[in-house]
Design goal:
single chain, alpha/beta, Phosphoenolpyruvate Carboxykinase, domain 1, Phosphoenolpyruvate Carboxykinase, domain 3, Phosphoenolpyruvate Carboxykinase, domain 2, 3 domains
Length: 628
């Protein structure tokens, strides 16, 4: 028992540091749970929670697989709610690059006073009738100097079991924490129960959702949503929003990036990181099955990278996560066989279809079943006009299930980074790959990333949106300062890794994709890694360095791609693109933008005009050397 009369299960209170117990007590008095459960991370605890949720109807056992379950969320709670995700700082400029006419595309600010009022209106009594679960977790290997410890309080057993998959949870985390500070996360589904009332199938309060971050005190406050991106507070909230703020203070980077190892035919191994918006192929690239002989790709992580310059000026990366939270639709044995080999054990699926044999199905997985139960729990037939799985349906799977998990995935010192990639969905104008002229130019490329909107957030349609560094929803501080920090990190590196932009999604005049993608993307990585080693020539274009007409190995492709169209940098497109980037920088970032970014934009303008003077057309190769 603790003061207040709550029963504490799981870890005994005498095993919990006193400053943690004081914090738990504070929030218990506000939220008024029925009891408190401090997670120990054991298998027995995991099975107990899953059994309880099956009895409540929150989880459906998938008898076709080993220890796998299906959850169906409220149809109003299926994605990140970016419009209600806020950063709270004393001064608005610490969050926003523009303080007056700011549109909110790079985040939303709330004053500490207004946030306190919201907390006081939302949280009192919000856990009535529910258990408060206390989740001690480590982002990164437990005990590593590059890792960070957090504790999440939640009234969702679903969140608790998913956090056990996505992070390292348990008593060992508390043992390492000792008397040190920790990141404080508080989450409630916002649906208190009245006496005698039974749990709803998917409790949430979509009309009152709030996901708030307080960088100055390392706190996360989440209310109303049970969706993973809003409720698994170790993921985007700590690893990126608070993580980027912590990284700025301490001299490292927290990025929305995969980490993979690429072993070449000569046995040499290099590690890459890559930043793509959600649903743009990050997991597929992280677990690439190469279609060039002699290559092997291993995965360290598919979503988040913490990048640290070491004492020798080498950039090194760790994956702070412990699992995959992957998008299901489009994942299949052709597009990502290693993901498919990972997800049918110890996995929790959300919003996919349930097949009659106790399995799951989603669009793009394979042949349609004749009938199934769709993500809303309704009968579905192959002739139905509605999708069986939600476009943002997910699998939550332990990393250890992956058959190509890199041996160094838990190296406490991280893995050395040889190349950095940015990318997005661009149907026209942007070549398959190009290389930055310098670190500063690479930072500019990251700042100018644009992509079609995806189902991971609440946006509709295929509008092209600015998504700088694929971090637009995740910046924890002023974007201009973020760019300044990237520039400063480059000065700490003895040999900064080269930076590349890729675009797997360029389309031809008939609307079809020009590049086969998936396993053939190794051909693009091969060119980039050979460029990083100084082993290949390149064609100078207005955007930077592009492969020569025979630079990519396309031997063995089933269909010969139109390389001229794939690598074209049409002058008219890039003139319009540069003008639009200038307007974006001016209206959304303004005086916060580092001078170096304006200089890089001016240099792009000059290169575009030189190409125009040479009358370079879309389908021509040119040996012009870019202006540095």
């Amino acid at each position: 028992m603790v003061a207040g009369g709550w029963t504490i299960n799981g870890v005994e209170p005498n095993g919990v540091p006193s400053h943690v117990m004081e914090w738990i007590q504070h929030w218990a008095e506000i939220c008024q749970p029925t009891d408190i459960h401090i997670m120990d991370g054991s298998d027995e605890e995991d099975q107990m929670l899953k059994k309880m949720m099956v009895e409540q109807g929150v989880l459906i056992p998938l008898t076709k697989y080993q220890n796998c379950y299906l959850a169906r969320t409220d149809p109003k709670d299926v994605a990140r709610t970016e419009a209600r995700t806020v950063i709270s700082t004393k001064n608005k400029i610490d969050t926003h690059p523009v303080t007056d006419t700011y549109s909110g595309k790079l985040g939303h600010w709330i004053s500490p006073e207004d946030l306190d009022k919201k907390i006081q209106s939302l949280f009192p009594g919000c856990m009535n009738g529910r258990t408060m679960y206390v989740i001690p977790f480590s982002m990164g290997p437990v005990g590593s100097q590059l890792s960070r410890i957090g504790i999440e309080i939640t009234d969702s057993a679903y969140v608790s079991v998913c956090m056990r998959i996505m992070t390292r949870v348990g008593r060992q985390v508390l043992n390492v924490l000792g008397d040190s500070p920790f990141v404080k996360g508080v989450h409630s589904v916002g649906a208190p129960l009245k006496p005698g009332e039974h749990s709803a199938l998917w409790p949430c309060n979509p009309d009152k959702v709030l996901i708030a971050h307080k960088p100055e005190t390392s706190e996360i406050i989440s209310f109303g949503s049970g969706y993973g991106g809003n409720s698994l507070l170790g993921k985007k909230c700590l690893a990126l929003r608070l993580g980027s703020s912590i990284a700025r203070k301490e001299g490292w980077l927290a990025e929305h990036m995969l980490i993979s190892g690429v072993t070449m035919p000569n046995g040499q191994k290099k590690y890459i990181t890559a930043a793509f918006p959600s649903c743009c192929g990050k997991t597929n690239l992280a677990m690439l099955q190469p279609k060039l002989p002699g290559y092997k790709v291993t995965v360290v992580g598919d979503d988040i990278a913490w990048l640290h310059p070491d004492e020798n000026g080498q950039l090194r990366a760790i994956n702070p996560e412990n699992g995959f939270f992957g998008v299901a639709p489009g994942t299949n044995f052709q597009s990502n066989p290693y993901a498919m080999a990972s997800i049918f054990k110890d996995t929790i699926f959300s919003n996919v279809a349930l097949t009659p044999d106790g399995g799951v199905w989603w669009e793009g997985m394979g042949p349609k079943p004749k009938s199934c139960i769709d993500w809303r729990g309704k009968p579905w037939r192959a002739s139905s006009s509605t999708p069986a799985a939600h476009p943002n349906s997910r699998f939550c799977t332990p990393l250890v299930n992956c058959p190509v998990l890199d041996p160094a995935w838990e190296d406490p010192h991280g893995v050395p980074v040889s190349a950095i990639f940015f990318g997005g969905r661009r149907p026209s104008g942007v070549p398959l790959i190009y290389q930055a002229i310098s670190w500063e130019h690479g930072v500019f490329m990251g700042a100018a990333v644009k992509s079609e909107a995806t189902a991971a957030a609440e946006f509709k349609g295929k509008q092209i949106m600015h998504d700088p560094f694929s971090m637009r929803p995740f910046f924890g501080y002023n974007f201009g300062d973020y760019l300044r920090h990237w520039l400063s990190i480059g000065k700490l590196l003895k040999n900064p890794p080269p930076i590349f932009m890729v675009n797997w999604f360029r389309r031809g005049h008939d609307g079809g994709l020009l590049w086969p993608g998936f396993g053939d993307n190794i051909r693009v990585l091969e060119w980039a890694l050979n460029r990083s080693a100084g082993q290949l020539p390149a064609s100078g274009r207005c955007v930077g360095w592009v492969p020569t007409h025979d630079g990519l190995d396309i031997h063995g492709l089933e269909e010969s791609p139109d390389m001229e169209a794939l690598l074209a940098t049409p002058t008219r497109f890039w003139r319009e693109e540069a003008a639009e980037i200038r307007q974006y920088f001016k209206s959304e970032i303004g005086d916060s933008l580092p001078t170096e970014m304006w200089r890089q934009l001016d240099k792009l303008d000059k290169r575009i005009e030189v190409f125009s003077d040479y009358n370079v057309e879309e389908d021509e190769y040119h040996s012009y050397e870019p202006i540095g």
